[in-house]
């Protein structure tokens, strides 16, 4: 996870569920809309502890997660209002 540096990590769903089904979710008190898939760059190949570079994860993403010429992993979301999100808050699919 240190290479992707996500703000939220969702577990308990089928693989890539966020790509096909989610347009709005609720996390804690916040309801963000799913804006677009998250394109990944060369920063993900840098080990944050050593600053060394490796081929992964872009090598694997290129085989499995290429869409419209971009390597994608996760989603960008935009909050529709304020609120608090806490570790362990449930995620609900609203739309």
**Tertiary shape:** globular
CA-atom Rg in angstroms: 15 Å
Elements, N to C (H/E): HEEHEEE
Question: How big a fraction of the residues is strand?
Answer: 25-35%
Question: How many separate domains make up the residues?
Answer: 1
Helix content: 10-25%
The pLDDT mean sits at 89
* Number of DSSP E strands: 5
Regions with little confidence, pLDDT below 50 for 5+ residues: none
Largest sheet: 3 strands, antiparallel
Q: What is the spatial order of strands in the main beta sheet?
A: 2-4-3
* Distance linking N and C termini: 27 Å
Would you tell me the structural class of the helices and strands? alpha+beta
Task: List the total number of helices.
Answer: 2
Could you characterize what this model shows?
The chain is an alpha+beta fold. It has one domain (17-93). The chain is 12% helix and 27% strand. The chain has helices at 17-20, 58-64, and strands spanning 25-27, 32-39, 66-67, 70-79, 91-93. The strands form two sheets. Strands 2-4-3 form a three-stranded antiparallel sheet. It is globular, with a radius of gyration of 15 Å. 6% of the residues are buried.
